[in-house]
Amino acid sequence: MKIDVTAYMKYYNLERLHSANGDQSPVEFEHSQLKVSNLG
Predict the structure, then answer these.
(1) Could you tell me the residue range of the domain that residue 23 belongs to?
(2) Mind listing the pLDDT tens digit of every residue in the chain (40 residues)?
(3) Total domain count, the chain
(4) Among 30, 32, 34, 28, which Cα is nearest to 15's?
(5) CA of 15: how far to CAs of 18, 27, 29, 39, in Å?
(6) Which of 4, 34, 28 is nearest to 16 (CA)?
(7) Rounded to two decimals, what is the model's pTM?
(8) Which of 5, 35, 36, 38 lies 20 to 30 Å (CA to CA) from residue 29?
(9) How far apart are CA 22 and CA 33, in angstroms?
């Protein structure tokens, strides 16, 4: 079960596109926000 949950979390955060994030994955969206805010 741990392997399945880990795989889903990776998919959800790294691959799945979210319409609320401008069709970006959560990680891509966070990186884009860091670039804009000059915090990254």
Answers:
(1) 2-37
(2) 999 999 999 998 888 998 988 999 999 999 888 888 776 5
(3) 1
(4) 28
(5) 9, 9, 12, 23
(6) 28
(7) 0.63
(8) 5
(9) 12
